[in-house]
Design goal:
heterodimer, A: alpha+beta, seven-stranded mixed beta sheet, three-stranded antiparallel beta sheet, elongated, B: alpha+beta, five-stranded mixed beta sheet, 19 helices
Chain lengths: 329, 659
């Protein structure tokens, strides 16, 4: 069959095809692996070069034309007439990807604070003993340090071991407080979301790594009363307008006074964050005059927010890499 | 720490029930929980041990919080004497400021009364003997740890000194502990009798035959006790208290109380004498509060009278107004109060945090952009749009996940929780591929990504970088398909960031890829990451991965883009189907095509590549060339000329057989 004959045949047969299946059968007859045009293309190699050149170009062009014809035919053939549509047919499924619930919560927290004028700041996950402890008024050989079970990192070589600061995985996002203050002058307000680490046995509510958001606001007259405003606004945005805050005395060496905040959510008080007024000694470590500046700091667990909001019963689910968790978000 | 409700009530007659006490402590002081029976479990913060790690101390705090009156037991002061039967001396006053020894020489058999053993048991202590029980009882009552030595087992005077190298001690619980000068001991002429502030020794243990005792009530340096306790891995009720600081004034009180109780339970009849070595560290101090500052700090304005009313019950002495300044004397038992902020906390918690008004701060409008996080958000949304779901994996991995890259030294944890989590991840790929393959138990194809920090050292210097890892694991698709899909994902991601990327051969061995199935992702001369087939793949379940460096994407991303007018003139397409030797790769073919410099060639698209069954030495490649000019319609003739040029080149340089 010559090339024109193929084209005519295709046009003729397609006109008689009433369904997708019929159109597909015709497509396979001509363009399938053993189709007529395919055979032509395959036989080209046996022709003398001059002939092959011409026929090859024509055959390729024809293939393009036929592909277009079939595309149209397969798109329309068999599609029922308007009055035949079954409105109860299910929708086509799309397979989009999903964000991790901790990313969803982190995005929300960042959005809330950004709208209040807070900058979002980053810091290293591998820290020095100085920023994680000393500069936060948690001296060595003090029992207060036992509040943070720490993963220590071996120095890469013995020389470094001797002269450098001890390395650790940060136990909280608070080291970024001093890192940020060393490079910036108040007034400012920042949040620092990030991964933190605790040396502890894992169970439904403990993981070796988890997420915190640190908050820090410093100015001439930033007060505890201002802290209550910011945090109550935040809790209402995250947990809904019915959320209430309860404040209890607590102790963290880098704040004074130190507080623990509970949130009233779905009929219960839930422990949600630690906070307080920045300790004057922390300002001193950051080379601020504590008589010039004051402000508040807080730390809230992202995992905890996500667990409370979405009813996730076990923190370990976040780090198992199971897409059946993620696909729900 | 365990506290007995009944015991506390003996100091505060009107003390409410347990539940109310717990509530009161939690809102005014510190966290407390209900424990079995009569017991309240109090989570003392480290700074409140000095005044509250005792029933008397907690009762004082509780009474102030509740507004009730607190009745301390009446303890007659001890009789100070200048010499006992044996000399007392402090050789290390830095680590022991005060050492008191109370001499009792008429010990007689006695039984601890039920009320005492009951309270001890309630607080988790086992009654042992009258003397030991009194020591323990006084510690739980006053917060002062005591120790009793059998005086007849001592050899020569008692000294408080650094242990000598090579010395050791057998403790009361019959453990042998090696000592050195970092450890402070109580010793006699024969050697160590006790590890200062931590544990007594076996040698001078009080027993049923003991007739004369010396009661130690001392003040030890908290850091020294803490360090020693950590080093010898021995924590006791005494060491916990000393490590958090004990009020130095309690030393004499504790001794007096012990003597009083021994007499009360008829273990002794005489009036004992106490030798005091060293000096009481001075603790009483005064702090001035400016009410204007307090109002600025807390956000609530309080008068001198209000302040006085709030904190006097806690033992603070508030002096008469002095030029608008509130002068406050700090009680000696409150070692934690050092600054005006500390006093502000006392005022605020007694006032009630819930009563402090809520007021909006003046916010300085200067939020900075965070381009790193913006980019990471962009990567996340680009990847979810093409069907990939986000995973979080642990930052710690087993050794074989961290190892294998000769340029990166993996970092190990000093104290790993298990060998599974012993190293810091150097790449995200192994853990992500592993997680993806785990998911294959209930899915046919798993598309995942993670953004996270990796850690390693280069030339002894530690580094931390953020990577993005994309993986595809499948039971359904071929390895080639998986790889090509991932390449498409990387291409698309790069396109959304306006980064031109290409793929080059990875010359180094890759620790997580199948040999040869690995490529570098590059932009210009920068390496942006790598892409390949994981070596965890099996024949029927391949996994492909791509790991990208976020810093590289940051550097090359083009935030600004320019509009390009849609093509005005029609394109002409030409397909090539050819056989080439098997070793020729698609990139070679494309390079040859472009290398022949055909004019107006705008695109080369791979249509098909396969290995013909009948001839294993060859490979069939089909490509489509698109020719287009930006300023006119091309003629068939000029395209044909360029096409011929391409075909010739393919034949000559690749040995292609055009089909």
């Amino acid at each position: 069959m010559n090339l024109n004959g193929i084209k005519d045949a295709v046009v003729r047969e397609l006109a008689g095809a009433s369904s997708r299946e019929a159109a597909e059968t015709i497509r396979l007859k001509y363009l399938g692996r053993k189709g007529e045009l395919t055979e032509v293309l395959r036989s080209l190699k046996d022709l003398p070069e001059a002939e092959r050149r011409i026929l090859g170009a024509q055959a390729n062009a024809l293939r393009g034309e036929l592909e277009a014809l079939f595309a149209t035919a397969l798109g329309s053939a068999g599609s029922a007439r308007a009055d035949d549509i079954d409105i109860t047919l299910p929708g086509h499924e799309f397979s989009r990807g999903h964000l991790h619930p901790l990313t969803v919560v982190q995005n929300e927290v960042e959005r809330i604070f950004s709208q209040l004028g807070f900058s979002v700041i980053d810091g290293p996950e591998m820290e020095t003993e100085y920023y994680n402890f000393d500069a936060l008024n948690i001296p060595a050989h003090h029992p207060a340090r036992d509040m943070w079970d720490t993963f220590w990192v071996k120095q890469p070589d013995a020389l470094a071991q001797k002269k450098a600061q001890r390395l650790l995985m940060r136990t909280h996002t608070s080291p970024v407080q001093v890192r940020y203050m060393e490079k910036h002058e108040p007034p400012f307000q920042i949040i620092v979301p990030g991964r933190v680490f605790r040396y502890e046995a894992t169970d439904a509510s403990h993981e070796i790594n988890f997420y915190q958001v640190e908050g820090l606001m410093v100015g001439k007259d930033i007060s505890l009363s201002n802290f209550k405003f910011i945090i109550e606004h935040f809790l209402k945005r995250v947990f809904g307008p019915g959320a209430k805050a309860r404040y209890r005395p607590s102790y963290f060496p880098f704040v004074e006074p130190g507080l623990e905040i509970d949130v009233w959510y779905r009929g219960a008080w839930l422990e949600i964050m630690g906070a307080g007024m920045v300790h004057p000694r922390v300002f001193e470590y950051a080379h601020y005059n504590p008589h010039d500046w004051q402000g508040f700091a807080f730390g809230v667990g992202l995992d905890r927010i996500a667990m409370i909001k979405y009813g996730i019963p076990d923190i370990r689910l976040f780090y198992g890499g199971d897409v059946r968790l993620t696909e729900q978000f | 720490m365990k506290f007995s409700h009944e015991w506390l009530k003996s100091y505060i007659p009107k003390l409410p029930k347990k539940a109310a006490v717990i509530d009161l402590l939690s809102t005014r002081s510190f966290e407390a929980e209900d424990a079995a029976g009569d017991i309240i479990e109090v989570k003392l913060p480290p700074n409140r041990y000095a005044d509250c790690a005792s029933h008397m101390g907690l009762a004082r705090e509780l009474a102030a919080a509740a507004g009730l009156s607190y009745k301390a037991p009446k303890i007659p002061p001890i009789k100070k004497i200048s010499r006992g039967w044996t000399g007392i001396s402090i050789k290390d006053s830095a680590r022991c400021a005060l050492y008191t020894a109370t001499f009792i020489d008429d010990l007689r058999p006695a039984k601890s009364p039920g009320w005492m053993t009951g309270r001890l048991r309630a607080c988790g202590m086992r009654p042992i003997s009258a003397v030991v029980d009194v020591m323990n009882y006084v510690m739980l009552e006053t917060g002062q740890p005591l120790h009793a030595f059998d005086a007849d087992l001592l050899h020569g005077p008692i000294t408080v000194r650094a242990a000598a190298r090579g010395e050791s001690i057998e403790t009361l619980d019959e453990k042998n502990i090696a000592l050195d000068p970092d450890i402070l001991v109580i010793a006699d002429g024969k050697g160590p009798l006790a590890i200062a502030g931590i544990k007594g020794g076996k040698r001078a243990e009080v027993g049923p035959k003991t007739k004369r005792i010396i009661i130690e009530s001392a003040h030890f340096d908290p850091i020294s006790v803490y360090r020693t306790s950590r080093r010898i891995n021995l924590t006791t009720d005494a060491s916990v208290r000393f490590a958090h600081s004990v009020n130095p004034e309690t030393a004499l009180l504790g001794a007096a109380r012990a003597a009083q109780l021994l007499k009360e339970i008829k273990a002794s009849a005489s009036v004992p004498g106490t030798v005091v070595a060293g000096q009481l560290p001075k603790t009483r101090s005064v702090i001035d509060i400016d009410p204007a500052w307090l109002s600025r700090f807390l956000g609530v304005t309080l008068s001198h009278t209000q302040i006085k009313k709030l904190i006097s019950p806690l033992g603070f002495e508030v002096f008469a107004p002095l030029k608008n300044i509130v002068r406050i004397a700090i009680p000696s038992f409150r070692l934690d109060i050092e600054s005006r902020e500390d006093v502000a906390e006392e005022i605020a918690r007694m006032y009630g945090y819930d009563r402090i008004p809520v007021s909006a701060p003046r916010i300085s409008p200067q939020a900075e952009p965070n381009t790193l996080r913006d980019l990471m958000s962009h990567v996340r949304s680009a990847l979810t749009l093409v069907g990939y779901s986000e995973a979080y994996t642990h930052s710690f991995v087993p050794k074989n996940y961290a190892d294998g890259n000769p340029k990166k030294t993996p970092l190990a944890l000093e104290n790993p929780i298990s060998s599974e989590y012993a190293y810091l991840r150097t790449e995200l790929t192994p853990a992500n591929v592993h997680a993806g393959r785990e998911n294959l138990r209930f899915a046919e194809t798993v598309r995942m990504f993670e953004l996270g920090s990796v850690f390693f050292a280069v030339d002894g210097k530690t580094q931390e970088h953020i990577h993005a890892c994309i993986t595809l694991s499948t039971k359904k698709l071929s390895a080639e398909h998986a790889l090509r899909e991932l390449k498409g994902v990387v291409d698309e991601l790069a396109r959304t960031l306006h980064i031109p990327v290409s793929y080059g051969d990875e010359l180094d061995a890759h620790p997580h890829a199948r040999p040869g199935h690995i490529a570098r992702i590059t932009s210009g001369s920068s390496v942006l990451g790598s892409i390949g087939i994981s070596n965890m793949s099996t024949a029927d379940k391949p996994s492909a991965f791509a790991e990208l460096f976020i810093a590289g994407l940051m550097k090359h991303a083009q935030p600004e883009m320019k509009y390009a007018h849609p093509a005005k003139y029609p394109a002409i397409e030409r397909d090539i189907s050819m056989f080439v030797p098997k070793k020729v790769r698609v990139a070679d073919a494309e390079e040859a095509i472009r290398g022949s410099k055909p004019q107006h060639l705008s695109r080369v698209k791979l249509l098909e590549v396969y290995l013909p069954k009948e001839d294993r030495s060859r490979k069939s490649i089909a490509v489509r060339l698109t020719f287009r000019s930006t300023d006119r319609t091309l003629t068939e003739r000029e395209v044909e000329q360029e096409f011929e040029k391409v075909l010739r080149t393919l034949q000559q340089s690749l040995g292609a057989e055009i089909r």
